From TrEMBL, chain A:
A molecular function GO annotation: transmembrane transporter activity
Family: Belongs to the binding-protein-dependent transport system permease family. LivHM subfamily.
Source organism (scientific name): Bradyrhizobium brasilense
Keyword list, A-Z: Amino-acid transport, Cell membrane, Membrane, Transmembrane, Transmembrane helix, Transport
UniProt membrane topology term: Multi-pass membrane protein
Location of the protein in the cell: Cell membrane
Keyword Transport among UniProt keywords: yes
Residue intervals passing through the bilayer: 12-32, 44-62, 68-90, 102-124, 157-174, 202-222, 242-263, 270-295
Major site of localization recorded for this protein: membrane
GO cellular component: plasma membrane
UniProt keyword Membrane present: yes
Name of the protein in its database record: Amino acid/amide ABC transporter membrane protein 1, HAAT family
Segments forming a coiled coil: none
GO biological process, one term: amino acid transport
UniProtKB/TrEMBL annotation, chain B:
Signal peptide range in chain numbering: 1-26
Protein name: ABC transporter substrate-binding protein
Signal in keyword set: yes
Classification via Gene3D superfamilies: 3.40.50.2300
Taxonomic lineage: Bacteria, Pseudomonadati, Pseudomonadota, Alphaproteobacteria, Hyphomicrobiales
Keyword Signal: yes
Family: Belongs to the leucine-binding protein family.
UniProt entry keywords in alphabetical sequence: Signal
All residue ranges annotated as the Leucine-binding protein domain in the record: 31-399
Origin species: Bradyrhizobium pachyrhizi
Length: 309, 441
């Protein structure tokens, strides 16, 4: 019974961690789905959003504003920063590179990553800034059934709820709104979309803005978990296997990929790790991703790529 | 907001094309390179340390006009705590200044491992105060390595001494479970051999648990700890790994007062992100802790009053800042010692190595330097490149660090055989003929 309790605890903890990875992966999916650009800068955008949020929040609270008012204003400020970032990226990076191939656009986002990281730390600081928007203690479930119960962290549950709401909202946005449909049209073919009157610049601004807002949501959860600091950018690396498994174009895929990566890496670390020296979860996620790549290169939920030759 | 505005101004200036001017070397300057990390995942710990180092060198120039009239010339190089960048910085800076680098402080055990052979070949001392390779205490083999004030083997022994004291004696260690949560890098792995020796001697069960760089995700490690229920968890972390460990410990309800961090896991950035959850957390002290001493008053008077400080005045006296000034002071005193033999002029790394190896800081000299209360006497020799192996334990009470123990001295009778064994293997592997320390002066 102890072994089963431990297994369930690790499994649930892994699934919950996976959802938190999905929060970051969603930003990648959004931009790729709508513009065909693999946005390497998503981790840096989470950092920027988090720093803008926490620094504004600290300032407002220090000036005597009630916490709930300060939180709303700080989120508003961070959203404005992300909107400005989206505009700058569209205006000076992605816009001028329209019709360039995917690799060129990808390389440009690597450049954007370093600019955002450097500018964010220079403007907002490079310390660790605590953020406490959600509870971080734990529930201990089924204590009568398993000695010590099964630990479930409240922050992880909040993360899962937020991810669920995000996915539902994004699904409605993409499927039911005019802008969402325009985004999909631009993703399919920039020139064709432009020829029927869809303003590409505006659409790309919108998609980078939405990705920026998703980054802000991810920053609220990860900032509460780690404190807002540079290491948040490493989450991009945790999101990559999630994307490979779930597929670059599928929002539900980002969630399912996250669940697989989270559960897989935690179970591997706890049950396989001790026999081979431990510290395996970081690369084990990529083992899972490689296995999926071999069997289904477009990911479990990705669109099958069919090219006329 | 003023600081944000200031940063914006800096950014605007940078974007405007302002270039950083490279320091030009004059003939009567002693060049000291500073390998630092002010960006990246470890910047929160690297920056305050670097600020302390830079401020102390500036103090010597501003207050004393240099070391016996020889001005200190510094240049920082950003390593990001990455070994490859550290090696690159070393290669770029080692020959600068009229006599090359006086010594090098890599502030990374990984970079130390990578540079050990290079610095020996270049005859440039590598000072690794409180870190680096523990076997390099043996100066007969490692002529240019100086793991001053404490190696990780000394730290491991001091940590176990403190655990034994809390339990009521060394005999109480038998059957206890002690885990090591470590950064999966040369740094984190360094104490393992010593802890294995200690586990064998005292009969406790030792379990090493690695955490992958940078340490943002530790859930599986802490779920394993929750199941294993160790009596103590030693934390060998750096940067975000430390605060994450404390938060995860809180999440699994592991008592924070049963966690003991190494001295690199016991600074303000390690505990403040965890808020109240960090209360009770303990760490070793590399002798000093937080707080201000006469040396700080001089820094405020001669450096900050002139607008030449490296950090916000409120951060003067934090743990890592103090470690930075201590490290810089030891380097300066080694140069001063070497000047007694080689003259009051810029010295080569080889000459400074002699100064390090013959450096003795008595209580009186430490007081004169303004470090009384931070540091105990140091005596470095050919056979002992560590120079001192004292430590204390501090505890975070939610607002500040409180010293909760007397001084411990690492047990040489346990450490020395391991040092001799491992350094002899290194000497054999690298075909180094150990020096006869009895003949060294």
């Amino acid at each position: 019974m102890i072994a089963l309790g431990q297994f369930l605890e690790v499994l649930i903890g892994g699934l919950m961690s996976g959802v938190l990875y999905s929060l970051v992966a969603l930003g990648f999916v959004l931009i790729f789905k709508a513009s065909g650009v693999f946005n390497y800068a998503q981790g840096a955008m989470v950092l920027l959003a988090g720093l803008a949020l926490v620094r504004a929040l600290d300032l407002l609270v220090a000036n005597g504003l009630p916490l709930w008012v300060a939180v709303i204003l700080a989120i508003g400020f961070a959203a404005v920063i992300m909107a400005a970032t989206a505009w700058l990226i569209e205006r000076f990076v992605i816009g001028p590179l329209v019709n360039q191939d995917g690799l060129t656009l990808f390389m440009s986002t690597i450049g954007v990553t370093f600019v955002i990281e450097g500018a964010a730390e220079m403007i907002f600081g490079s310390d660790v800034y605590p953020l406490r928007l959600f509870p971080t203690d734990a529930w201990f479930l089924f204590e009568g059934l398993f000695p010590g119960g099964i630990l479930v962290n409240k922050l992880d549950v909040w993360g899962a709820l937020i991810a669920g709401v995000l996915v539902a909202g994004l699904a409605v946005f993409f499927q039911r709104t005019k802008t969402g449909r325009a985004l999909r049209a631009v993703a399919d073919d920039h020139l064709a979309a432009h020829s029927i009157g869809i303003p590409i610049s505006w659409i790309w601004f919108v998609v980078w803005l939405v990705a920026g807002l998703v980054a802000l949501v991810a920053a609220t959860v990860w900032g509460t978990k780690l404190g807002v600091q540079f290491s948040i950018t490493f989450l991009a690396l945790k999101a990559l296997p999630v994307l490979i498994i779930g597929g670059l174009t599928s929002i539900p895929g980002a969630i399912v990929g996250g669940l697989i990566v989270g559960a897989g890496e935690k179970l591997a670390e706890v049950y396989l790790g001790p026999s081979i020296g431990g510290g395996i979860e970081y690369w084990f996620a990529y083992v899972l991703a490689l296995a999926v790549l071999l069997l289904r290169p477009q990911g479990l939920f990705g669109e099958r790529i069919i090219e006329r030759v | 907001m003023a600081s944000i505005a200031r940063r914006l101004l800096i950014l605007a200036t940078a974007l405007g094309g302002a270039a950083l001017s490279a320091p030009a070397a004059a003939q009567n300057e002693q060049f000291i390179p500073i390998l630092s990390y002010r960006t990246g995942p470890y910047a929160v710990n690297g920056a305050p340390y670097a600020n302390g180092v830079v401020d102390y060198y500036n103090l010597i120039n501003e207050r004393d006009g240099g070391i016996n009239g020889v001005k200190i010339l510094i240049e920082e190089c950003e390593t990001g705590y990455a070994t490859d960048k550290g090696v690159e910085c070393y290669e770029r800076l080692k020959s600068k200044g009229p006599t090359g680098a006086a010594f090098i402080n890599p502030l990374s055990t990984g970079i130390t491992f990578a540079l050990t052979e290079k610095t020996a070949a270049d005859k440039i001392p590598i000072i690794t105060m409180g870190y680096g390779r523990a076997d390099s205490k043996n100066g007969a083999v490692f002529a240019y390595n100086f793991p001053l004030l404490g190696t990780y083997w000394s730290a491991a022994d001091i940590a176990i001494q403190h655990v034994a004291k809390e339990l009521g004696g060394f005999d109480k260690l038998k059957g206890k479970k002690i885990s090591l949560l470590y950064h999966d890098s040369p740094y984190g792995k360094e104490p393992i051999p010593m802890l294995q020796v200690l586990a064998q001697k005292y009969g406790f069960e030792f379990t090493p648990i690695p955490v992958t760089h940078p340490g943002v995700e530790q859930k599986s490690q802490w779920l394993a700890i929750r199941q294993h229920r160790p009596d103590y968890v030693l934390v060998w972390g750096w940067g975000v790994m430390n605060s994450t460990a404390i938060k995860e410990a809180a999440a699994v309800a592991y008592p924070r007062d049963k966690m003991i961090g190494v001295w690199w896991s016991g600074a303000e950035p390690d505990v403040t992100p965890a808020g109240d959850q960090a209360s009770g957390y303990k760490s070793l002290m590399l002798q000093h802790g937080a707080g201000k001493f006469p040396a700080h008053a001089d820094i405020e008077k001669y450096v900050y009053a002139k607008g030449k400080g490296s950090t916000e005045p409120g951060k003067i006296g934090e743990v890592l800042y103090n470690r930075g000034i201590t490290n810089a002071m030891l380097g300066v005193e080694a140069i001063r010692k070497a000047q007694e033999k080689f003259g009051k002029q810029p010295l080569t790394g080889e000459q400074v190595r002699w100064g390090l190896e013959n450096l003795i800081l008595t209580d009186a000299r430490i007081k004169e330097l303004g470090f009384e209360g931070m540091l105990k006497p140091v005596s470095i020799s050919c056979s002992d490149h560590e120079g001192a192996r004292y430590g204390r334990v501090q505890q975070w009470d939610g607002k500040g660090w409180k010293v909760i123990s007397d001084w411990y001295t690492a047990d040489e009778s346990l450490i020395e055989p391991l040092v001799a064994d491992v350094s002899a293997k290194y000497a054999a592997e690298k075909k180094i003929k150990p020096r006869d320390c009895a003949k060294e002066t």
